[in-house]
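Let's sit down with a protein and look at its sequence and fold side by side. We need material for that, and I hope you will provide a protein of your own picking. Once you have written the record down, we can walk along the chain together.

***
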Amino acid sequence: MALIPTCNKQGNLALALILGYFVYLLLGATVFQLLEKQAEEHSRVQFQMEKLKFLQNYTCLDGPALEQFVQIIMEAWENGVNPKGNSSNPSNWDFSSSFFFAGTVVTTIGYGNLYPSTVAGQVFCVFYALLGVPLNLAFLNQLGKGLNLHLVALERCVQRPGQPGKVVKTVTVTLFLTSGTLLFLVFPPMIFSYIEGWSYGQGFYFAFITLSTIGFGDFVLGTDPNKHYISVYRSVAAIWIIFGLAWLALVFNLGTTLMEKLLHLGLHPARAVRLEEVGAVSKLEERPNQCRDRHRTSRVYDDYSG
């Protein structure tokens, strides 16, 4: 009979998670539509006007010829060739860029701006990811354990005699989150903004989208043909991504644990109240015992003095 309430609680929790998940998706879809649809319409109208101006200035071209040229540009972009510049643009498949691409494969970021175009490269990518993704997860797991050890060591350093455990944990987690945010999300966008010519907001957006493995591909390092990048730039960025993934994974785990606790409290507030009542009752039960012990001691003292 005790299994029925447990099943009901788990069912309520699962239902709340499902409803919350889809409500969150619907909310995100609504906000993105409100923010982006008008800008998309503006870009579309502007593009059509530019095409008409181009045809008016170059009367030797007709509409179908221009559409064919636009299709060629789109195919070149999809194959990883930047239409801007000339044939002397840096290769997308030099060792540094290939190392960066390999990192995006095993970390499942997948920006989408670059991918294998040959059948041999596509087949190799499949088997490379089959082994590389589990290897990357195991590696990130070890990095996470190392960060946890440093977190425990930091907690011991912060611990002072007589301090409550909750206060120490709160201070430790705050230091961990602050240092990691500065190291992976605040300072790197400054470097990216300087090198790539982005605004700081764009650099911050790129950093989070990358480390969270969302990887839209709208901002990618080292792809501007008008800039000269050092050869190790993208390789160093790949190392930053790997360590940033481990840190952000711990942050997400912490957020998941906190969210589950809040969800449990929201679904079962009476349980938390009962726990507080049990604690209060246990304290009240201790007090009469202490009073009885004191009463016995006073009686012994009176007998001895009498």
Summary: Confidence is low (pLDDT under 50) at residues 275-306.
